[in-house]
Structure formats: structure tokens, C-alpha cells
Amino acid sequence: MRGAMKPVQICYWFNTEADEAAELYCSLFPASRILGKVPYGKAGAKATGQKPGGTMTVDFELAGLPFLGLNGGPHFKIDPSISLFVACESEREIDALWKGLKRTARMDLKAYPFAKKYGWCEDRFGVNWQLILGEARQKIAPALLFANEKFGKAAEAIEFYTSVLPDSKVERIAQDEKTKAVIHSRVRLAGRDFVFMEGPLEHGFDFSPAVSFVLGCSTQGELDRIWSRLSAVPEAEQCGWLRDRYGVSWQMVHENWGTMLRIASPEAREKAMGEVLAMKKLDLDRLSRALRA
After folding, report:
1. CA distance 68 to 61
2. How far apart are CA 171 and CA 60, in angstroms?
3. Last residue of some domain: 145, 164, 198?
4. Distance (Å, rounded) from C-alpha 219 to C-alpha 4?
């Protein structure tokens, strides 16, 4: 299946820090901006323990790429299983980003056999960043680390995702000659570059809803087709969220869902969010009618 779809949006689940995180990231990257915010209504606030009127979601762009910050409460914690791989054009740029982002370093910023300069750090919100000196078609790419019981499944996952999502293909993949483990890869999924990696060591983290990928669908048929292929954990289906066979979380929404929520009246938005909370897979027509009420 191939076709047009908006590039995947990366969603980070924060406790209450989505606004602060978005402002920091937009201050550090060129071609970045906050697009808008959606406040909590009574239904959403009650379901998550947040305050009515406070920020529910903030849409923003980093280097022209779409991101979403969600204030969802303390239920999930961001970890290194999914990081952001950033190609930096100069030493000045990589040094400035390292200074602006680093709270703790997983790999110090320095020269390595595979890069003139590289570093892996975690920022104060728990988001992990891999910074590398070099060029790439897409400046920021989500990097999935297959580890623990998922070690050895990255190549399988790449084949699966590229078969399910439109505008997808393998750009390059490097595997260990003996184990066939994926050392590093660039894969285009639904119009956005991803990095796939495998770690042989035991890690105390795994994929979770703390980081999810938002797919904007133009029709209910498109949503239904992809949902049926991706969803592998029925009990995780809720409010348009699903979990796939590798434990990665996805949100499937209308392609203009964020804009529709932002421009809707408070009454219509409250009605639509009440509908969302009662759904597993989203009914796009039903939600569109609610937002027009």
C-alpha cells in the first residue's frame, strides 16, 4: 500500500512540562515554532488528573518537522528507548545544542571511530538526544533502540513497518556480519526518516506510551486498514492509541485533528473529547460532527 500521508508526528508524554519543553526546543533549533495549544476541558482533565484550562497538548515544529507535547500526568516516564538523532552541520552547532540540552551524558560529546564528533545526552525532561556532526536529508529523526527481548527483531520490524505504512522505504541498513543485528539504519516511514538500532546489553527500559507516533489519516478507510495491521495489544487500544507487536505506541487520528481542536469552540471541543474518551479506534465522521456542534 502506497499513498500520501502527512509526515509522522512524534508525541512526548510529559507530566505537566509540555509547554516548557516546547519553548526550550524551539529556542535551540532553527526553523522551529509553536503552532498552537489545546486546553483541557472538564472531561479530559477529570480523566488525567490535570486542571481544566491548563494545556493539554502543544503542537510545535523543530527544524520544520512536527512534534506534539502532551501533559498527561505521571503515568508514563520518557526513557532512552526512543531518542532523537540530530545531524549537526558544524562544531559550533553541535556544541550549542549539547550545552542547551544536556542534563546528563550517556556518551560524552567527542570523537568516535564512527563519527568526527558525537554525543548522547538526556535533557531535564527525560528526552534523549543523539547529536552527530554530519549531514542528513532530515535533520531530526526518531531513533528506536531494540534491546532486551526485542534484540534481534529490528530488521523484522523494519520490513513490517515499511509494508504497512505508505510513503515508506529502507534508505540504508548496516548489520553485524555475524549476528545480523542492526547496527544503524535509516528508514523512511509515512514520509519521515527513522533510525533503527539494536543494543545487545540488558537495559532497564523499553518502548512505552511515553513516546508515541501520530499518524494523520485522510479517510476512515485508511485509518481502519493501518489500525488492523498495527494493533497487536487489544487492551492497549484507547482514545485512538494502539500498541504494535514490538511494544511501540501509535496514535491514529484525522490528518487535521490538531487544527480542528484548536479552532473549535470550547463547547464543541468538550463534546469531541468526551467522544474520544469513550472510543478505542476513532470514528472520524462522528468526531467531525461533534466538532461542528
Report:
1. 8
2. 27
3. 198
4. 12
3-state secondary structure of 261: helix
d(CA 289, CA 292): 5
Q: How many helices (H) and strands (E) does the chain have?
A: 8, 15
Supply the pLDDT for residue 4.
63
Domain presence at residue 281: yes
Residue 197: which residues within 8 A CB-CB, separation 6 or more? 143, 144, 145, 146, 154, 182, 183, 184, 185
- How far apart CA 31 and CA 26 sit, in angstroms, is 8
3-state percent breakdown (helix, strand, coil) of the chain, nearest 5: 30, 35, 35
CATH (domain of 154): 3.30.720.110
| Whole-Å CA distances, 271 to 57, 192, 277 | 17, 32, 10
Q: Give yes or no for a contact between 55 and 19, defined as CB atoms under 8 angstroms apart.
A: yes
Whether 99 and 171 share a structural domain: yes
Specify whether 189 is located in the same domain as 93.
yes
Q: What pairing do the DSSP bridges indicate for beta strands 104-112 and 140-146?
A: unpaired
Model confidence, pTM = 0.96
Residues 143 and 181 in one domain: yes
Contact present, 26 and 8 (Cβ < 8 Å): no
Quote the domain boundaries for residue 107.
Answer: 82-198
Show the cell assigned to 176: 553485524
Q: What is the pLDDT of residues 30-68, one digit of tens each?
A: 999 999 999 999 999 999 999 999 999 999 999 999 999
CATH number at residue 61: 3.10.180.10
